[in-house]
Write a structure and sequence with these properties.
Blueprint lengths: L2 H7 L5 H9 L3 E3 L2 E2 L13 E3 L2 E2 L8 E6 L28 E3 L7 E7 L2 H8 L7 E7 L6 H9 L2 E2 L2 E2 L4 E4 L4 E6 L6 H8 L4 E9 L2 E2 L8 E3 L2 H8 L4
Parallel strand pairs: 7-13
Antiparallel strand pairs: 1-2, 1-3, 3-4, 5-7, 5-15, 6-7, 8-12, 8-13, 9-10, 11-12, 13-14
Helix pairs in contact: 1-2
């Protein structure tokens, strides 16, 4: 197994972050500093980061979590706010969020220690859709606003890709986007005259929130993991 992949599978960091660690000379294999992320790691090799041994690849896990409003989607928070990682008893596994969901929003977020899968699910080139339900101000939502969202909206950081949008009621709409810009759905809705009052993520690729209650989690099975990995094929 290549060194960067080994570190990602050990839960040290995502593969991209592991490559940066290696380039900085922080990683040793059998006591020797290694700068090549493609260095092959054999079963009995000893790997350390910053002088601390790496225990080896952890079992790959992925959890679906219903994040409540007020919980931040980080592994730790310097302001003492509750984090989404604290919602899952990980039994020593080093989990981190896959993508982001702002503190004012609720709904489906994924936690994993699989850096390779996390990169697949969040990299723009794979265009994994995220689905949201938004309650907006300025109801009713008219055809012009829906048409603008479907065409793509001009934001301060450039135009968005077209969204899939449908109206659920006078003040609720459902949107699916595959980009991952900061607070993108909120900014898109504000740009068409309908600021978001409440936002819930209901889908991530082929996964859906279903009836998972706020604050709850479930570990994904192998069939679901395979469906996610298939998105890159």
């Amino acid at each position: 197994m290549r060194l960067a992949k080994y570190l990602a599978h050990a839960g040290v960091a995502s593969r991209r972050a592991a490559e940066a660690m290696i380039a900085q000379g922080r990683v040793e294999v059998d006591g020797e500093s290694v700068l090549d992320p493609a260095r092959d790691v054999r079963e009995h090799d000893s790997v350390s980061v910053d002088g601390r041994p790496v225990a080896g690849p952890e079992p790959r896990v992925l959890y679906a979590v219903h994040k409540p409003v007020g919980v931040v989607s980080t592994a730790r928070d310097t302001h003492g706010r509750p984090t989404v990682v604290e919602l899952v008893p990980a039994a020593g596994l080093r989990l981190y969020p896959v993508g982001r969901l702002d503190a004012d929003s609720s709904g489906l977020i994924l936690l994993s220690n699989d850096g390779e899968l996390a990169n697949l699910l969040t990299h723009p080139s794979f265009e994994v859709a995220k689905t949201y339900r938004a309650r907006v101000a300025g109801a009713p939502v008219g055809r012009d606003a829906l048409r603008a969202l479907r065409a793509g909206v001009e934001l301060e950081d450039g135009p968005t890709a077209p969204a899939r949008v449908r109206r659920l009621s006078e003040d609720w709409i459902e949107l699916s986007i595959h980009e991952g810009r900061n607070r993108q759905v909120r900014r898109m809705c504000a740009a068409v005259g309908h600021p978001v009052l409440e936002l819930v993520r209901t889908g991530f690729g082929p996964l859906s929130l279903d009836d998972l209650p706020p604050g709850a989690h479930r570990r994904l099975g192998e069939a679901e993991l395979e469906r996610l990995r298939a998105l890159s094929r």
